[in-house]
Each structure stands twice: as structure tokens, then as C-alpha cells.
TrEMBL record:
GO terms for biological process: sphingosine metabolic process. The lineage of its organism: Eukaryota, Metazoa, Chordata, Craniata, Vertebrata. Residues 77-113 are annotated as: Disordered. Pfam families: PAP2. PANTHER family: SI:CH211-212G7.6 (PTHR14969:SF27), SPHINGOSINE-1-PHOSPHATE PHOSPHOHYDROLASE (PTHR14969). This is Phosphatidic acid phosphatase type 2/haloperoxidase domain-containing protein. Residues 167-279 form the Phosphatidic acid phosphatase type 2/haloperoxidase domain. GO terms for molecular function: sphingosine-1-phosphate phosphatase activity. CDD domains: PAP2_SPPase1. One of its GO terms (cellular component) is endoplasmic reticulum membrane. InterPro entries: PAP2/HPO, PAP2/HPO_sf. SMART domains: acidPPc. Residues 78-89 have a biased composition (Polar residues).
Amino acid sequence: MASNYVKTFVDVCSYLQDPCHVARFQKICGVIGSFPVKPKNLGSGESEPDVPGLRKRIQQGEQCSDVNFGNGAVGDAASSQPNGMQSDRSVGPGGTSAAAGVESDTVRSKPLRRNSLTEEVGQEFLIHNKFLFYLFTFGTELGNEMFFIVFFPFLFWNIDALASRRLIIVWAWNLFLGQSTKDMVRWSRPASPPVVKVEVFYNSEYSMPSTHAMTGTAIPFCLFMLTYGRWQYTFLFGFSVALSWSVLVCVSRVYMGMHSVLEVITGFLYTLLILAFLCPLLDPIDTFYMTDRYAPLAIVVSHVSLGLVAFSLDSWSTSRGDTAQALGTGAGAALATHVNYQTGLLLDPPLSSLPLTLQSVGVSAVVLSVLRFAIGVAVLLVTRMAMKAVTIPFLCRVFGLPSDNVRQARQHMRVELPYRYIVYSVVGFSCVCVVPLLFRLVNLA
């Protein structure tokens, strides 16, 4: 009986892992690839990337008989087209669209960003539903660096500092566990064809589980758990927002062609397990960071140790850098939390004032929030830019490495790990301690 359940579970996982489901979903959403009519012959002697599981996925893709790979007409122009989107309104001699079967509102597009490791620009594809393209592009951006460098500070400076700093703890641990699991499992991205790579920035990373799905689940649900009862809103409202946020991010990763259905579901469930374990510990962890005299030492040792573990799992990739970046940000924010408490710079509202309510949205409140946000983010961006410009050349000199090729220099662990920690720990510390102090000095607190 038990063996039957195991077999059924394995069969279900294999079914959900099939890239054909990703390709079908993309086709339903109006994404058409620029593949040749017939996929490349694997026996032609062409070299293939040495990625475990890649051959199996491509062979699975060849079995998708009901998925239209597209034609070569779109792909032929791919090399001459810049990244971005262009309306396909060219008209042929007969008064019809130059690309057969392409509607007048169809948009030609290529991935907006190059592959972070190989500099690959990706193939051109056609977008038949621009609303879904923009919706899922927004959804996938909810898991990228620029969103976090905007969201966490806005929450900290304008709404709830306690929720923000605890959310950073969850984000750092969640990303560490997700990226480390990726580098241990080592599953490749869904095969293309049949999958259309709407995004290629993370295409060289492993894919199981989806860390976008993990952060897109951890952030809204943890925020909901941290603020429900602390702020005045209904359970249904908070849960609906969290679930909608999570679903949007998860589905966007399938739309982008970056993950299979199984990888997204696994990321979602994995995060719920992490939250169930971690959320009850947030209060004692936060209290320890604020009050214990040895907290700074424990913060530095624990976060650096986790980074060393992550960097030892696989060769250089953006996933290792993202892990160190999250851990560095978490370390900087935790150290700033200790400094704020010890100096009395930023104290949490007393329990007697709970539940908190949003103030009436007046012109002065909006202007104040916008000023805080604009000045604060500008400080963080300048800080990050300045630290990047100084740190990498300095580390290259220390370790005797050439600094003329930044990408190559960062593939060395002794450069990438301290670079990420130094830069983003300073950014995290600035967000939680330096910028609030600046707000006090200019009467914006």
C-alpha cells in the first residue's frame, strides 16, 4: 500500500515537472516563441551546456506535440532587434501583416535584461496579450532586488519599523534556505523549446525550488502574520491581499518560462513550512538583537557562517551572490537594531497603543512620506553605488587579482563573498539606523 502511494506521488511530481505544461500556459496567455518549426536535433553533434537534467528536459519538450513552437520568421530578426518591445504593424505587399497570422496589436519583444552569467540576450517572441505581459512582469519584479530595496525601507520609515526589521529576518533566512536547496538539488530550468524564455536573467541558475515563489509567499504572509492584531484591519482583507500577492508572483514565474509548475508549488509549500517554524521565534530573536551585549558578535558570526556554507555548495552563480546579499542586508539591519535600542534612537510604540490605526491621509502626511521615501532611497542608492565602486577594486588589490574585469573578479569567492557582505550590510545598517537619524536632523521623523 505504501509503495502505491509513493509511486502515485512520484507520478504526480513527474507530471507537474513536465515543461509542456509551462509551454501550454504561455500559449494560453498569448506568448508565442521564435523557435524553428522542428526543434534542434540532439544527435547533430552540437555542443550542449553541461547542466544536469538538461537532456531529459529537452527530450520531454520534444514530446509536446500539441504545442506550436512558432516559426523561424520571428527568430531570424532576433539578432538585429534591441531588447525591449516593439509593435508589429509592418504590412506586406498584399496588405497583410508581414509576419503571417500576427494581429495588428501584437508586440515583438525580447527579454528586458541579459543573462546575468552568460550575457545571453535571449530569443525574440511575440506577445498577443499585453495586459498579461505587464501584469506578470510586475509580479516577477516583486521578487527582484529593486523591489526589496524600495519596499523594506518604505515600510520601515513610514508604516511599521518592527514589522519591517522582522520581515528582513524572515526574508534573509528564507532566501538562504531556498538558494542553498537549489544548489543541492541542481535541477535545470524548463527546456526551451517548448518553453519560451520571456526572462533570461536567472536562466543559468538552478530552478528547484522557485525562490521567487518563496519570497513572494514569505513576504506577504509573514507581513500578514506580523500585522494582524497589531494593526486594525479584518482577517479576510489581510489574507486576501497576501494570497493574491503570492499567487501573482508564483504564476508569473511559470509565465516567464523560468519554472515548472512543480517548482513553484514546492517553493510555496516550502515557505509555509519555514514560516511555521520561524515566525514563533521572531520575537525572541528580535529581543536578543536589541538587548544582548553579545548580539553584534553573534549576528556577524552567524550570517558570515551561513554565507560560507552557501558559497561552498556550487560554482559561482547569481544565486550565491543573492544569498550573500540577503544575509549581508540582514546582518546590517540587525546590527542597526541593536544600536537603535541601545542609544534610544528608534523605539517601538508601547503595547498600550495597540492596535495601531492608519492616520487620516492628508496632504501634509503624504508630502512627508514622499519626502522621507525619496531622500531615504536616494541615500541608500548612493551608498550602494559608492560602496560597490570602492569595495571590488580594494578586494582585488588585497588578493592580487586583476580588477579590469569586474564580472571575472567576482567569480572568486574571496572577492564576491566579502563584497556582498560589506556593501549590503552597510546598506541594511543605513536603512535602519543612519537614514532615521538623518530624518531627525532635518525634522522629517
